[in-house]
Task: structure prediction
Amino acid sequence: MEIETKAVHSGYSPDPTTKAVAVPIYQTTAYAFDDTQHGADLFNLAVLGNIYSRIMNPTNDVLEQRITDMEGGAAGLALASGQAATTYAIQTIAEAGDNFISMSTLYGGTYNLFAHTFPQMGIKVRFADPENLDAMAALIDGKTKAVYCESLGNPAGNVVDIARVCEIAHAHGARSNTARISWCTR
Ligand SMILES: Cc1ncc(COP(=O)(O)O)c(C=O)c1O
Result:
Protein backbone atom coordinates (compact mmCIF):
# COMPACT_ATOMS: atom_id res chain seq x y z
CA MET A 1 0.00 0.00 0.00
CA GLU A 2 1.30 3.49 -0.85
CA ILE A 3 1.93 5.85 2.04
CA GLU A 4 -0.83 8.18 0.80
CA THR A 5 -3.35 5.32 1.04
CA LYS A 6 -2.10 4.36 4.49
CA ALA A 7 -2.48 7.99 5.62
CA VAL A 8 -6.17 7.84 4.76
CA HIS A 9 -7.14 4.24 5.50
CA SER A 10 -4.76 2.42 7.87
CA GLY A 11 -6.15 1.36 11.22
CA TYR A 12 -9.83 1.71 10.34
CA SER A 13 -12.41 -0.16 8.27
CA PRO A 14 -15.82 1.38 7.51
CA ASP A 15 -18.42 0.61 10.16
CA PRO A 16 -20.11 -2.65 9.09
CA THR A 17 -23.60 -1.54 10.21
CA THR A 18 -23.78 2.07 9.06
CA LYS A 19 -21.09 1.87 6.33
CA ALA A 20 -19.77 5.22 7.62
CA VAL A 21 -16.21 5.76 6.47
CA ALA A 22 -15.16 8.53 8.91
CA VAL A 23 -13.46 7.45 12.14
CA PRO A 24 -15.93 7.94 15.02
CA ILE A 25 -14.86 10.19 17.89
CA TYR A 26 -15.44 8.10 21.02
CA GLN A 27 -16.14 10.60 23.79
CA THR A 28 -16.14 8.01 26.54
CA THR A 29 -14.06 7.73 29.65
CA ALA A 30 -15.11 4.24 30.69
CA TYR A 31 -15.82 0.95 28.93
CA ALA A 32 -18.21 -1.86 29.84
CA PHE A 33 -16.85 -5.23 30.94
CA ASP A 34 -18.65 -8.44 29.94
CA ASP A 35 -18.42 -9.65 33.55
CA THR A 36 -16.09 -9.36 36.52
CA GLN A 37 -13.68 -11.94 35.07
CA HIS A 38 -13.41 -9.94 31.84
CA GLY A 39 -12.69 -6.81 33.90
CA ALA A 40 -10.02 -8.65 35.88
CA ASP A 41 -8.46 -10.05 32.69
CA LEU A 42 -8.32 -6.61 31.10
CA PHE A 43 -6.62 -5.05 34.12
CA ASN A 44 -4.20 -7.99 34.33
CA LEU A 45 -3.42 -7.46 30.63
CA ALA A 46 -4.41 -11.09 30.05
CA VAL A 47 -6.74 -10.00 27.24
CA LEU A 48 -6.58 -6.96 24.98
CA GLY A 49 -9.34 -4.38 25.15
CA ASN A 50 -10.36 -0.93 26.24
CA ILE A 51 -10.23 -0.19 29.96
CA TYR A 52 -10.18 3.57 30.44
CA SER A 53 -9.69 6.44 27.94
CA ARG A 54 -6.78 7.88 29.90
CA ILE A 55 -4.75 4.86 28.78
CA MET A 56 -6.46 3.91 25.52
CA ASN A 57 -9.28 5.09 23.33
CA PRO A 58 -10.60 3.61 20.05
CA THR A 59 -10.27 6.93 18.19
CA ASN A 60 -6.66 7.41 19.33
CA ASP A 61 -6.03 3.79 18.46
CA VAL A 62 -6.81 4.44 14.79
CA LEU A 63 -4.31 7.31 14.75
CA GLU A 64 -1.71 5.16 16.51
CA GLN A 65 -2.17 2.28 14.08
CA ARG A 66 -2.15 4.62 11.10
CA ILE A 67 1.11 6.35 12.05
CA THR A 68 2.69 3.00 12.94
CA ASP A 69 1.78 1.66 9.52
CA MET A 70 3.06 4.76 7.73
CA GLU A 71 6.35 4.61 9.68
CA GLY A 72 6.73 0.82 9.41
CA GLY A 73 6.95 0.75 13.20
CA ALA A 74 6.02 -1.86 15.81
CA ALA A 75 3.44 0.21 17.71
CA GLY A 76 2.41 3.80 18.32
CA LEU A 77 1.26 5.96 21.20
CA ALA A 78 -0.58 9.24 20.64
CA LEU A 79 -0.28 11.89 23.33
CA ALA A 80 -1.91 15.26 23.84
CA SER A 81 1.26 17.33 23.29
CA GLY A 82 4.68 17.15 21.76
CA GLN A 83 6.28 17.83 25.12
CA ALA A 84 4.46 14.85 26.67
CA ALA A 85 5.63 12.64 23.80
CA THR A 86 9.24 13.73 24.23
CA THR A 87 9.06 13.13 27.99
CA TYR A 88 7.53 9.65 27.54
CA ALA A 89 10.03 8.73 24.84
CA ILE A 90 13.00 9.38 27.11
CA GLN A 91 11.46 8.18 30.38
CA THR A 92 10.46 4.87 28.80
CA ILE A 93 14.02 3.92 27.95
CA ALA A 94 16.18 5.82 30.46
CA GLU A 95 16.31 5.77 34.25
CA ALA A 96 18.35 7.57 36.92
CA GLY A 97 22.05 7.08 36.18
CA ASP A 98 21.52 6.84 32.40
CA ASN A 99 22.25 9.48 29.82
CA PHE A 100 21.11 10.28 26.31
CA ILE A 101 22.46 12.43 23.53
CA SER A 102 20.51 15.25 21.96
CA MET A 103 21.31 17.42 18.99
CA SER A 104 21.79 20.98 20.23
CA THR A 105 19.36 22.41 17.63
CA LEU A 106 16.20 22.06 19.67
CA TYR A 107 12.85 23.62 20.41
CA GLY A 108 13.29 25.78 23.58
CA GLY A 109 10.80 23.81 25.69
CA THR A 110 12.59 20.59 24.84
CA TYR A 111 15.96 22.18 25.63
CA ASN A 112 14.70 23.11 29.11
CA LEU A 113 13.24 19.64 29.65
CA PHE A 114 16.57 18.04 28.72
CA ALA A 115 18.96 20.54 30.31
CA HIS A 116 17.06 21.19 33.55
CA THR A 117 14.17 18.80 34.27
CA PHE A 118 15.62 15.38 33.37
CA PRO A 119 18.87 16.00 35.31
CA GLN A 120 16.71 16.54 38.42
CA MET A 121 15.54 12.96 37.91
CA GLY A 122 19.09 11.68 37.44
CA ILE A 123 18.90 11.40 33.64
CA LYS A 124 21.71 13.41 32.06
CA VAL A 125 21.78 14.88 28.56
CA ARG A 126 24.86 15.32 26.39
CA PHE A 127 24.37 17.92 23.68
CA ALA A 128 25.93 17.29 20.28
CA ASP A 129 26.55 19.42 17.21
CA PRO A 130 24.43 17.94 14.39
CA GLU A 131 27.12 19.02 11.90
CA ASN A 132 29.79 16.95 13.67
CA LEU A 133 28.52 13.38 14.04
CA ASP A 134 32.00 11.99 14.78
CA ALA A 135 32.08 14.17 17.90
CA MET A 136 28.57 12.93 18.70
CA ALA A 137 29.74 9.31 18.48
CA ALA A 138 32.47 10.06 21.03
CA LEU A 139 29.81 11.12 23.56
CA ILE A 140 28.16 7.67 23.61
CA ASP A 141 29.05 5.39 26.52
CA GLY A 142 27.61 2.29 28.20
CA LYS A 143 24.89 4.35 29.90
CA THR A 144 23.68 6.10 26.74
CA LYS A 145 20.14 4.99 26.00
CA ALA A 146 19.10 7.19 23.09
CA VAL A 147 20.06 9.76 20.52
CA TYR A 148 17.46 12.45 20.05
CA CYS A 149 17.05 14.86 17.19
CA GLU A 150 14.31 16.93 15.67
CA SER A 151 13.79 15.80 12.10
CA LEU A 152 13.72 19.48 11.21
CA GLY A 153 15.50 21.45 13.92
CA ASN A 154 13.38 24.15 15.55
CA PRO A 155 14.04 27.05 15.09
CA ALA A 156 17.19 26.60 12.93
CA GLY A 157 15.37 24.59 10.25
CA ASN A 158 18.46 22.37 9.93
CA VAL A 159 18.16 18.89 8.48
CA VAL A 160 19.91 16.20 10.51
CA ASP A 161 21.40 13.18 8.71
CA ILE A 162 19.06 10.77 10.51
CA ALA A 163 20.28 7.68 8.64
CA ARG A 164 23.88 8.35 9.75
CA VAL A 165 22.79 9.17 13.31
CA CYS A 166 20.89 5.84 13.44
CA GLU A 167 23.90 3.97 12.09
CA ILE A 168 26.19 5.42 14.76
CA ALA A 169 23.64 4.99 17.56
CA HIS A 170 22.84 1.39 16.66
CA ALA A 171 26.53 0.53 16.34
CA HIS A 172 26.92 1.69 19.94
CA GLY A 173 23.75 0.00 21.20
CA ALA A 174 21.75 3.21 21.70
CA ARG A 175 18.35 3.91 20.22
CA SER A 176 17.88 6.62 17.69
CA ASN A 177 14.23 7.08 16.87
CA THR A 178 12.86 9.28 19.61
CA ALA A 179 12.36 12.25 17.31
CA ARG A 180 10.03 10.19 15.17
CA ILE A 181 7.99 9.42 18.25
CA SER A 182 7.80 13.11 19.09
CA TRP A 183 6.89 14.32 15.65
CA CYS A 184 4.28 11.66 15.07
CA THR A 185 2.19 13.08 17.86
CA ARG A 186 2.08 16.61 16.53
C1 LIG B 1 10.01 20.66 17.64
C2 LIG B 1 9.01 20.77 18.72
N1 LIG B 1 8.99 19.82 19.68
C3 LIG B 1 8.10 19.90 20.71
C4 LIG B 1 7.21 20.95 20.79
C5 LIG B 1 6.26 20.99 21.93
O1 LIG B 1 5.02 20.64 21.49
P1 LIG B 1 3.74 20.93 22.40
O2 LIG B 1 3.54 22.43 22.40
O3 LIG B 1 2.65 20.19 21.69
O4 LIG B 1 4.05 20.38 23.77
C6 LIG B 1 7.20 21.95 19.81
C7 LIG B 1 6.25 23.08 19.88
O5 LIG B 1 6.25 24.00 19.09
C8 LIG B 1 8.14 21.86 18.75
O6 LIG B 1 8.18 22.80 17.79
